[in-house]
Amino acid sequence: MQLFYNILFPVFFLLSAPYYFWKLLRRGNWREGFGQRFGGYGELKQKLSGKKVLWLHAVSVGEANLSVQLIEKLRSSLEGWTFVVSTTTTTGMGELARKLPPDVHRVYYPVDWLPFVRRAFRALNPAAIVLVEAEIWPNLFWQARSAGVPIHLVNARLSEKSYRGYRRFGFLFRPLFGALQTAGVHNEADAKRLAELGTESKAIAVTGNMKFDGAFEAEADAVDARALLRKLGVADNAPVLVAGSTFDGEEILLAELLPKWRETFPDLFLVLVPRHFERAGAVLDQLKSTKLKVARRTAMEAAPENPDVLLVDSTGELKSFFAVATVVFMGKSLTAQGGQNPIEPAAAARAIVFGPFMQNFRAVVGELLAAKGAVQVMDETELAGEIPVLLEDLEQREALGAAALGVVLANKGASQRTADWLGQTLRALAK
Questions:
Q1: Which of 12, 176, 281, 326 fits a 20 to 30 Å CA distance from 265?
Q2: In terms of pTM, does the model score above 0.90?
């Protein structure tokens, strides 16, 4: 299987290379760490020589933030270990650069072809690997097995879609899941799915969802969202609709609904925060058809007078805008499938609305809806009707926010449980 994969993968990579490099160009800063994407870690190999290395892999922003939480709690109990965190995206690297101390090394994860992964292993020489959430790369597992390096999985969740995909290609993934030394999962449903995919039951622990803890962590460089809105002429008592982590189609939909909502709430201000900030130019082009006045977060000095919309084309600021929201709409739930994480606005006790497609956060959504801590709409028409209802009813907004916060508080503690469980395992390894 390994031989078959490593014959097919380069073919697939070459065919997809134009798209891969186009994405890098689109996201910007592609030159930074470019060689690392092929396992070239340069002088880092010398810095790590003779060190006991814990290699954590965090695919993007959410996982990067979880790795920061975990490292903060592990450092005191793992004296003598050196931490390296890899990520796949430039946005993930941005979060790591902002939040990790200088003695924690940051690299881009290499393309999963054996020569590149083997090269990365030679440079990092890890004593153990920690995967943050279910990010399964075959050559990483095979190389770890060859080198006798244990792999641990933390904060794992398996959506129905990903579970079906792994089962469909069980001939490839079952041995990989079976190779996990330990696995910490969100809940019993995830534990069951992981066991069915081949992980030994005794290796699985239900540790909870670390994202509930991260929602309360203060941002060292948090922006004053209220002050930014004041600069744009938005009054402190004006209603603010924050659309977080939106996908293509959702920004224009909300912008086209804004004039209708303003018939009843003339001061309503819209904050759009696309999931991928590099889409800002395309979003701005779409909004031109609405004749709304749009300010860009990265060009505040050039903002039009009394804008209708703020387009946040920067990273790491969404939590700050949740704090000033009257109502929050969570993206990737109406025109795209999967949904985005509603935990942060829940921790801010906001009234949350999302569409029907929240599959990637099924458990969290289930708890929020059961507690009456969020509102789910089925389509654009329901969204158009629900937003003014919430804007009008302060009592309902406060009830939704209080219930949402209650769900988050009830789920706190996963980070410490994960750190205690993982730290114990790694200390035993060191003996």
A1: 281
A2: no
